[in-house]
Design a protein that fits this description.
Layout: E1 9-13, E2 19-23, H1 42-69, H2 75-107
Antiparallel strand pairs: 1-2
Amino acid sequence: MPIDPSMAIKGITGGVGGDEFNVGALDGTPTAPETAPAGPSFGSMLGDQLSSLEKTQNQAADASRSLADGTASDPSSAVIAVERAQLSMQLASQLRTKGVEALQDLLHTQV
């Protein structure tokens, strides 16, 4: 049996724009439109992580400032805060480098 593409396209009228088309399966059954998965977007997650990184950096700066002023009650917590900020920055830098490398590989891919 030959495949007839016109069986897959069914015209429906509706809405203000006039005729719309619903592309279904080749046997004539309509398919459900794909919806985006619910949840936070990549951009919002990235923004949240950058805000967290900034907060960690600010806490480390405050801790080192209080250590230099002599007002720190626990010097080891100040050192831990600075080390945590340093490790967070190194991780962010490595992720950025990997992302740039992946984008460059994608852009150099021949089609």
